[in-house]
Design a protein that fits this description.
With 457 residues, this protein is mainly alpha-helical. It is 74% helix and 3% strand. The strands form two sheets. Strands 1-4 form a two-stranded antiparallel ribbon. A two-stranded antiparallel sheet has the order 2-3. Strand 2 and strand 3 form a beta hairpin. It starts with a helix and ends in an 8-residue tail after the last helix.
């Protein structure tokens, strides 16, 4: 063990006196004589952790999600104003391009996740990952600041889409990729709380952004977010927790994992669920307006959905620890698909407002389950030592799914009138039901790999 490296490890879990207490986890191999031999190739060591450090990791990870994913979840408010004849900062011909305007938000969200393919290897090669997180915060704020000067769609794609997305990925992964390492028995509950920050962020940011736009205009709202992000995110970036692993982990997928049916189905599920999950959030404000609600009430409904989603992530994390994380994940993915093809579709067919309100609530309940539980199921299915590489790759696939779902939905929609949403809903239903089939398949093949079926898994 390299004592000097442990003593110099950024942010030390406590101090170098705890080096002797390093927790060593071995994957044993059984010799012919029945004795347990330690396989050098599969050993991995974790630094000890204190309750105080766990609390700090919970808080910083939660706030990171609030900021990065909260901004992504609130883009629908901007979209509603960008396509508006009265308040858009875009030329009228470009404001009518719903698919391109939707792509601004999905580019940011897609890069937040998809950036993992670059950020994860960069983290393993950087001595102090705070260089990455701080740079990410600066890029996010630069994206907002430059977006306030935009006059064309491509300006917004480069700023509020590309720059913001790259920056949020640089802040997101160095902090969130190590969070599961700090929890074991209650990992589902802990990650449910952390990932509930997406809903809380959206719940707070959506109405605030709408109020700011109405009060000070879109351009000054973007400038406000530029400085707000610096004020809130820089302290988080500067206090990012280190990994508990004492040795460098692989950043590429091991072939023995890549060829497993469980892994293949996990990647397909990630693509389909990410694409399907964002479609209702992207068009929630616009659909509300098409139903006859005001743009302001559409933003309120988006905030309500985010609030319900936040509470649901915490509860599904707790339920996952009690009833099995894979079982709970399957229930939530299937539930989100059913709500889309029932409540949302029925509302679009006859303009039923109560059914739309039910959809906003029930989709909030089910849609957050996958996001809350899939990081913990990755650790459960593929092991903690492979977590960084598998999680990074699957997040990349989720980023590609996010870049696919809403833009295609926008192209299918065309003009934002009620009858045009029917095909968008069928498209979204197909994505989510496809994801449902895949996560059920992961559950089955994981049991096959472990040579035994457990009802609680």
């Amino acid at each position: 063990m390299e004592l000097n490296r442990l003593e110099q490890h950024h942010g030390g879990i406590e101090n170098s006196a705890t080096v002797a207490q390093v927790s060593t986890h071995f994957s044993p191999s059984i010799t012919a004589s029945g004795d347990t031999a330690i396989s050098e190739s599969v050993t991995h060591q974790l630094l000890p952790v204190t309750r105080r450090r766990q609390i700090l990791v919970l808080i910083s990870s939660f706030l990171t999600i609030c900021i990065t994913i909260g901004f992504n979840q609130s883009y629908g408010v901007f979209q509603g104003y960008y396509v508006s004849d009265e308040s858009s900062i875009l030329p009228l011909s470009e404001a009518k391009s719903g698919a391109l305007v939707a792509f601004i938000g999905t580019l940011g969200a897609g890069l937040t996740w998809g950036g993992s393919i670059v950020i994860n290897p960069l983290m393993e090669r950087t001595k102090d990952k705070r260089y990455i997180t701080v740079s990410g915060v600066l890029l996010m704020s630069l994206g907002f600041g430059l977006a306030s000067l935009a006059t064309r769609i491509w300006h917004l794609l480069l700023t509020q889409g590309f720059l913001y997305g790259i920056g949020s990925s640089m802040m997101y992964f160095p902090i969130l990729s190590v969070a599961p390492e700090y929890f074991d028995q209650h990992r589902g509950s802990a990650m449910g709380f952390v990932l509930s920050g997406a809903g809380i962020g959206g719940l707070v940011l959506s109405p605030v952004i709408r109020a700011l736009i109405a009060k000070i205009s879109i351009r000054w709202t973007l400038r406000f977010l530029c400085f707000f992000n610096l004020l809130v995110s820089l302290p988080i970036a500067l206090t990012a927790a280190p990994s508990r692993f004492t040795s460098r982990r692989r950043t590429h997928i091991d072939y023995s994992i890549a060829k497993k049916p469980a892994f293949i189905l996990s990647t397909v599920a990630a693509f389909l669920q990410a694409g399907g999950n964002l479609v209702p959030l992207t068009f929630l404000s616009e659909f509300s307006t098409a139903l006859g609600y005001s743009a302001g009430f559409g933003a309120v409904l988006l905030a309500i959905n985010n609030g319900v989603n936040s509470a649901s992530r915490i509860l599904t994390g707790v339920a996952g620890d009690k009833f099995g994380r894979q079982n709970t994940l399957i229930l939530t993915v299937v539930g989100s698909a059913v709500t889309v093809c029932s409540f949302w579709l029925a509302s679009a067919l006859n303009g039923n407002k109560p059914l739309w309100l039910l959809f906003v609530v029930f989709y909030g309940i089910f849609a957050g389950g996958y996001n809350a539980l899939f990081p913990t199921t990755i650790a459960e299915v593929f092991g903690m030592q492979a977590y960084a590489s598998v999680n990074g790759f699957i997040y990349f696939i989720r980023g590609m799914g996010a870049l696919f779902g809403s833009p295609v939905g926008g192209a299918i929609l065309g003009d934002s009138i009620l009858k045009n949403y029917r095909n968008v809903i069928w498209f979204d239903s197909a994505l989510l039901f496809g994801a449902s089939v895949c996560v059920i398949g992961v559950r089955y093949f994981d049991a096959v790999d472990k040579k035994g079926w457990k009802w609680r898994a």
